[in-house]
């Protein structure tokens, strides 16, 4: 009890002393009425991961601590070069249903499959969601970008079915099923509906892969008929990328098969400010893993790790998504507002955003900006 | 059928003989041509194509005439009936013409809808064995886009990968599509990429892949690239994962020089790069085939809505024609024409509607001729 009343007190004190300036002050919503017991702290599995992972998850831990957010972490060491995700980590995620994760490096061609993919498959996290939007205060080449990329996460090119037919000839299977396509289409439209989005765009290459991507489109079209309030259109993946770099404002929610989603999300993240600031997560029917939105396998280079200059913004925003997922909307809002405020002020930014700050300096700035 | 087979075998053999006698067709042959340029003009096949095609092809012919390029065009049109020998609207004679000349220029072609014939582009690609698609992407000075420091070359493997066309339904609701990567095709495109980099004074070749997920297919592609890279120690070789590549391209395209990649990635990345510099209407493209065949093309659509209205932008086809000249090693002509095009666009007085101007195709072409 004491733990929970402390932040309230702190806030009251803060409010009276520094009435912050500008429009960024969040008005407290009055519509959220928690059920009794909703305030109990929740366990969350934490996987710091490789490279910059421990740095940025460390930042989240500190911020959560400072906010006295009602979550506590069960921390596990997992690294990209492991054969598979350790049993106790899986058990923990299955028990907690929610996980926060830094990047896991994917080894190249060593016969070890990506742990990121393994987690998604084993927990059936069929939807990957990346939110790409302009942050005020962050100069980019494009404005008015606000795109949500929803990507099928379990099949397609990532099926992992490959073999050598004869020496020098290799085949890789791309598998598309009606079940998974329908499931992701439903998720995308449901997401658009619940989040007041106006348009869903299906990305495909059905002019070449007539059957496989054709099946995906067919499923999307079927689902689209059930949501008359949401506009639906289709775009070929190469044209999609070209449009993204010239007129990104035309896109809203995008639904894609596995590989295209990977490319589209990274392109969209790039035009909106870089993968260092884009939040995202992977969700299934039961579980959810929150991580840096784009480039889960990209864990930064040694130099960034050594100098401790990784950008924690993406993971901080992802953990705001996580708080919302856990039904703590006010904590999520406070965290998001604080991060946005730090970026708008522009004093503490890491190198990828044109600043010189370290991870710790950005984290401290965010903690200071929490009201 | 039998005669057709014989013909095909003969056709491909004569090609091989040609390439066997001239060990490096791209280096020896054009020089010989160059010296004899005054007396015998080089013959090149021209497919004006559909829609705006004839207009922009006319523009190319006019510019080439003014620049006194020693090229004689052999014009071929898409037929109105399916040629049984090619199973397509393209006639066997057209294909033979490209094979004989070794160089060609192609306007936009719209494949008529219907069954029983192959797409025109696919026919050309398969019959002429066009294995590499090369697209130089550079920012046009004076035409402002959000990216102004683009100067890169995308080289795309064009014959296999995801575009194998092998698909089937396993059971109801489950579809499989095959991606094929072969050592032979990967080596061939890698070899061309490094050859191109060296010939054009480029410093770096980046292989784009997704070998962390498709470990064997893309792994094989990378292995082939590495093998070739060893033969070119003066050129820096690096490997970039496709998703990271997309992100880097939109954040800072100046990071890249020459990119070589399998089919689908090449399709996506080359269009993305075209987007960076202002669209397909400004992007030249050239296809390289076995035995030194080069078919330059405009990759934009045939724009039937503005066809015949004298509004089309011929830049892509003109720049493609320039890459064709470079392939023929007519570098001074190529430079002159390219500079004339770039200066005309940079000056901004004559621009077509798609670049925010109001000039007609003929005015624009005339302006380029004046700049020569």
Overall geometric form of chain B: globular
Strand order of the largest sheet of chain A: 2-1-3-12-11-4-5-10-8-9
What's the β-strand tally of chain B?
12
Percent helix range of chain B: 40-55%
Radius of gyration over C-alpha positions of chain B, nearest whole angstrom: 20 Å
**Could you tell me how far the N terminus lies from the C terminus of chain A, measured between alpha carbons in angstroms?**
20 Å
Major beta-sheet overview of chain B: 10 strands, mixed
In spatial order, strands of the major sheet of chain B run: 2-1-3-12-11-4-5-10-8-9
Low-confidence stretches of chain A: 15-23
Which protein chains are joined by the largest interface, and how many residues does each one contribute?
A-B, 61 and 57 residues
Kindly, what is the distance between the CA atoms of the first and last residues of chain B, rounded to a whole number of angstroms? 50 Å
Helical proportion of chain A, percent range: 40-55%
Mean of all residue-level pLDDT scores of chain A? 87
Number of strands of chain A: 12
The H-and-E topology of chain A, N to C, reads as: HEHEHEHEEEEHEHEHEHEEHHHH
Instruction: Supply the CATH superfamily name of one domain in chain B.
Output: Isopropylmalate Dehydrogenase
Would you kindly provide a written description of the structure presented here, covering whatever features stand out?
The complex is a heterodimer of chains A (371) and B (372). Chain A has 371 residues and is of the alpha/beta class. Chain A contains 12 helices and 12 strands. Chain A is globular, with a radius of gyration of 21 Å. Mean pLDDT of chain A is 87; it is low at 15-23. Chain B is of the alpha/beta class and 372 residues long. Chain B has a domain at 2-145 and 277-371: Isopropylmalate Dehydrogenase, CATH 3.40.718. Chain B contains 12 helices and 12 strands. The radius of gyration of chain B is 20 Å and the shape is globular. The model of chain B is unreliable at 9-37 (pLDDT under 50). At the A-B interface, strand 6, strand 7, helix 6, helix 7 and helix 8 of A face strand 6, strand 7, helix 7, helix 8 and helix 9 of B. Strand 7 (169-177) of chain A pairs antiparallel with strand 7 of chain B, so a sheet runs across the interface.
């Amino acid at each position: 009890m004491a733990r929970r009343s402390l932040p309230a007190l702190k806030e009251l004190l803060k409010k009276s002393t520094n009435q912050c300036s500008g429009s960024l002050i969040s008005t407290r919503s009055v519509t959220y009425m928690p059920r009794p017991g909703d305030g109990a702290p929740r366990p969350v599995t934490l996987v710091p991961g490789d490279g910059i992972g421990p740095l940025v998850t460390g930042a989240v831990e500190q911020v959560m601590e400072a906010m006295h957010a009602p979550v506590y972490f069960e921390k596990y060491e997992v690294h990209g070069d492991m054969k598979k995700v350790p049993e106790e980590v899986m058990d923990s995620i299955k028990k907690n249903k929610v996980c926060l994760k830094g990047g896991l490096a994917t080894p190249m061609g060593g016969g070890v499959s990506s742990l990121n993919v393994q987690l998604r498959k084993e927990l059936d996290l069929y939807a990957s969601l990346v939110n790409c939007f302009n942050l005020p205060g962050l100069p980019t080449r494009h404005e008015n970008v606000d795109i949500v990329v929803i990507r099928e996460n379990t099949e397609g090119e990532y099926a992992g079915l490959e073999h050598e037919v004869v020496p020098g000839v290799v085949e890789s299977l791309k598998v598309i099923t009606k079940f998974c396509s329908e499931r992701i289409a439903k998720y995308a439209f449901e997401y658009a509906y619940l989040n007041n989005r106006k348009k869903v765009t299906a990305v495909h290459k059905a002019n070449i892969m007539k059957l496989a991507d054709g099946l995906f489109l067919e499923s999307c079209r079927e689902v689209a008929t059930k949501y008359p309030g949401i506009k639906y259109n289709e775009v070929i993946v190469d044209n999609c990328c070209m449009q993204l770099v010239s007129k990104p404002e035309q896109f809203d929610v995008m639904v894609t098969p596995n590989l295209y989603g990977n490319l589209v999300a990274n392109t969209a993240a790039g035009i909106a400010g870089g993968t260092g600031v884009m939040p995202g997560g992977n969700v299934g029917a039961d579980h959810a893993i929150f991580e840096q939105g784009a480039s889960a396998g990209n864990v930064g280079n040694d130099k960034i790790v050594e100098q401790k200059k990784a950008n924690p913004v993406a993971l901080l925003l992802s953990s705001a998504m996580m708080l919302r997922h856990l039904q703590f909307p006010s904590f999520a809002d406070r965290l998001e507002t604080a991060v946005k405020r730090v970026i708008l002020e522009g004093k503490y930014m890491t190198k990828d955003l044109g600043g010189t700050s370290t991870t710790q300096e950005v984290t401290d700035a965010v903690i200071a900006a929490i009201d | 059928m039998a005669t057709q087979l014989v013909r095909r075998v003969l056709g491909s053999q004569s090609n091989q003989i040609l390439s066997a006698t001239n060990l490096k067709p791209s280096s020896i042959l054009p020089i010989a041509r160059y010296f004899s340029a005054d007396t015998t003009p080089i013959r090149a096949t021209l497919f004006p194509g559909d829609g705006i095609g004839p207009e922009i092809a006319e523009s190319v012919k006019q510019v080439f005439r003014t620049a006194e390029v020693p090229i004689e065009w052999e014009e071929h049109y898409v037929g109105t009936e399916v040629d049984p020998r090619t199973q397509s609207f393209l006639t066997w004679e057209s294909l033979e013409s490209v094979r004989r000349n070794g160089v060609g220029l192609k306007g936009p072609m719209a494949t008529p809808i219907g069954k029983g014939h192959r797409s025109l582009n696919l026919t050309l690609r398969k019959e002429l064995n066009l294995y590499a698609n090369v697209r130089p992407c550079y920012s046009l000075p004076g035409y402002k886009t959000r990216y102004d420091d683009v100067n890169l070359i995308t080289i795309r493997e064009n014959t296999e990968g995801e575009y194998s066309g092998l698909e089937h339904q396993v059971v109801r609701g489950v579809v499989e599509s095959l991606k094929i990567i072969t050592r032979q095709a990967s080596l061939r495109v890698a070899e061309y990429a490094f050859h191109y980099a060296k010939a054009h004074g480029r410093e770096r070749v980046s292989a784009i892949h997704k070998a962390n997920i498709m470990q064997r297919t893309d792994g094989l592609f990378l292995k082939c690239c590495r093998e070739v890279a060893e033969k070119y120690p003066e050129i820096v070789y690096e490997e970039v994962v496709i998703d990271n590549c997309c992100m880097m391209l939109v954040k800072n395209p100046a990071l890249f020089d020459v990119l070589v990649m399998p089919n689908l990635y090449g399709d996506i990345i080359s269009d993305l790069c075209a987007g960076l510099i202002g669209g397909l209407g400004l992007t030249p493209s050239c296809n390289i085939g076995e035995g030194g065949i080069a078919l330059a093309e405009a990759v934009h659509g045939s724009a039937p809505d503005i066809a015949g209205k004298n509004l089309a932008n011929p830049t892509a086809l003109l720049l493609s024609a320039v890459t064709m000249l470079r392939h023929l090693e007519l570098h001074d002509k190529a430079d002159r024409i390219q500079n004339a095009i770039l200066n005309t666009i940079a000056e901004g007085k004559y621009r077509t509607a798609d670049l925010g101007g109001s000039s007609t195709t003929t005015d624009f072409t005339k302006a380029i001729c004046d700049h020569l």
